[in-house]
Design goal:
The complex is a heterodimer of chains A (248) and B (285). Chain A has 248 residues and is mainly α. Chain A is built from ten helices and three strands, in the order H-H-H-H-H-H-H-E-E-E-H-H-H. Chain A folds into two domains: 1-106, no CATH class; 130-248, Outer Surface Protein A, domain 3. Chain B has a single domain, classed as TIM Barrel (Alpha-Beta Barrel). Chain B is built from nine helices and twelve strands. In chain B, the strands form three sheets. Chain B has an eight-stranded parallel beta barrel with strand order 1-2-3-4-7-8-9-12. Residues 1-6 of chain B have low confidence and may be disordered. Classes of the chains: A mainly alpha (248), B alpha/beta (285). The interface between A and B is large, with 51 and 48 residues.
Chain lengths: 248, 285
């Protein structure tokens, strides 16, 4: 049997709603001139958390656009995550659903938000351990890839170009490898060609396969038949990945 | 590790923040008895921060002070989140888990700050039942904090009646936040010493101390952004004399983080008061 009376629940709801919409409610027994501190304190947490997660988006939008979107998001979206650092992820779906006008004004916005959230998420996320051992050969053996990694595909080059200078003519197919370095904990972004994105994705999907086993597919799908050149270039790529701690 | 000649605090710990994590670990200028952190900021966190926390845990006992359980909420307890908290407490061998006597979630939306519960009999029963639910799930007593508040809402009883009733009905423990009691006394015009004298101090398990900011002639905001002021030290001394024995004391500092030695200076002052009052008793750890 619930203990809480409807009136008590209502008073709690009114205060909570006020912190979200800023419209001062008629409440029982509140001290005059004090409620607004709750609105200010709560909204500061929201705005600070969003702004620190999306600094590039803050820089892309006008101050007014950013203020309005933060305000509208908090007012009309029920934040579901108990961990405040995870809350900003919810902004991405909110903007996609409710602020299509922003996406039209800034076509790169969707990719930028995704990139910034991935950086925050990868920096904080739970550890995933590398499988045992090191890659035995860059061509003839499977690669021991960093499990704290993924490939994001973007329509705009938000990972290699200042979002403010991206124009509709930049639209294309971009691939970005995102991974967390084990020793420093830093999150790195690496621009990939479609071929290298496919290669990494294929090797990640089947950890028992070697690049060499993919040579026939590479020849057929990408038209690269010079195995000596392919071996050299993949060897160089492997070395770079290893120096960046993307492969062990 | 600290050298053998560094005096470690016996009673006084400090809130561990990522902001000063590196300075904290690399400095010999702070030597708290324990550190406190919010599980919400660390659950399922890996990488650099987890390694930092592992280093901290090797040096200090960890206490935990929650932000999002929202025991005062009209909504049901989030069992999934509570399970995460339980796992976290076990993983890090957390000896004290405290939460706020307030609500930070309402009508299925998190607000990420602490709102005051109406001081009412039905709220006492509702919140007490939720605290008991949490205690049953965790298999430990919950330590609830007296929060600072800037306006009462729909109150039908006094604050101290409300708190004592919950302590009794929930059979939980109390986090004595001395700064909050001072702030509330100032903001709502009551004598904080008289307030403490009316509380059931036998349930005090833990103490928080912090600074605040006076924003107008009749309002203090609980910012944790300033050093502790003398009247709060006086209130602390008054409060701990009411206790049966030593409990851990935490220095909270969340903004305007000063040099480590300044934080240690505050801890030293608190430690001296503890030692004088508790006659060199040591904490059970």
């Amino acid at each position: 049997m619930p203990h809480l009376k409807d009136e008590t629940h209502e008073q709690q709801s009114l205060l909570a709603k006020y912190t979200r919409d800023g419209i001062e409610p008629e409440m029982i027994g509140v001290t005059e001139g004090r409620l607004h501190h709750y609105r200010r304190l709560v909204f500061n947490v929201i705005r600070e958390s969003l702004s620190s997660t999306y600094p590039l988006t803050v820089n892309l939008l006008t101050q007014k656009e950013w203020s309005v979107v933060c305000q509208e998001f908090f007012e009309s979206h029920d934040c579901v995550h108990p961990q405040v650092w995870r809350m900003p992820e919810e902004l991405i779906a909110y903007i996609a659903e409710h602020r299509q006008d922003l996406h039209e004004r800034y076509p790169q916005l969707e990719d930028l938000l995704q990139l910034e959230w991935l950086e925050a998420e990868y920096y904080m996320m739970k550890d995933r351990n590398f499988p045992e051992g090191s890659s035995k050969d860059p061509i003839a053996a499977p690669w021991n890839l960093n499990p704290e990694s993924e490939i994001a595909s973007f329509a705009y080059p938000v990972h290699i170009k200042n979002a403010r200078f991206i124009s509709p003519t930049d639209k294309g197919n971009y691939y970005c490898l995102i991974f967390r370095q084990r020793t420093s904990g830093k999150v790195k972004f690496m621009n990939l060609s479609p071929f290298l994105a496919w290669l990494i994705a294929t090797l990640k999907a089947d950890e028992s396969i070697s690049p060499q086993e993919l040579f026939p597919v590479i020849a057929k799908e990408f038209g690269v038949e010079d195995e000596a050149l392919l071996t050299e270039q993949l060897g160089n790529f492997f070395d770079k990945l290893r120096s960046d701690e993307m492969v062990k | 590790m600290s050298g053998p000649f560094i005096f470690m605090n016996q009673h006084v710990g400090i809130g561990y923040r990522k902001d000063f994590g590196s300075a904290f670990l690399n400095s010999e200028e702070v030597h708290p008895a324990f550190v406190e952190l919010a599980p919400e900021n660390w659950i399922d966190v890996g990488g650099y921060w987890k390694r930092q926390l592992q280093k901290v845990a090797e040096r200090y006992p960890i206490y935990s002070h929650g932000l999002s359980l929202s025991v005062g909420s009209p909504d049901p307890i989030d069992r999934g989140f509570l399970k995460q908290v339980k796992d976290f407490l076990e993983e890090w061998n957390v000896q004290i888990y405290s939460e706020h006597l307030s609500y930070s979630k309402c009508d299925n939306a998190h607000l990420y700050d602490l709102l005051p519960i109406p001081f009412r009999e039905d709220a006492v029963k509702h919140v007490s039942e939720r605290i008991r639910e949490v205690q049953d799930f965790l298999g430990r007593k919950l330590v609830i904090e007296i929060v600072s508040y800037y306006t009462p809402v729909a109150a039908e009883m006094t604050e101290v009646e409300f708190i004592n009733a919950i302590l009794q009905e929930a059979d939980c423990e109390l986090l004595f936040d001395i700064n909050n009691i001072y702030v509330n006394g100032f903001n709502h015009g009551y004598d904080p010493k008289a307030f403490i004298d009316q509380l059931d101090t036998s349930r005090v398990r833990y103490i928080h101390m912090a600074g605040h900011e006076k924003v107008s002639d009749d309002l203090i905001i609980d910012t944790h952004g300033q050093p502790i002021i003398d009247p709060v030290y006086d209130l602390f001394e008054h409060a701990i004399k009411k206790l049966n024995g030593p409990v851990p004391v935490l220095l909270e500092r969340d903004f305007n983080i000063p040099e480590m030695k300044e934080l240690q200076h505050e801890m030293d002052r608190l430690e001296a008061i503890c030692t004088q009052t508790w006659d060199h008793a040591t904490l059970e750890r």
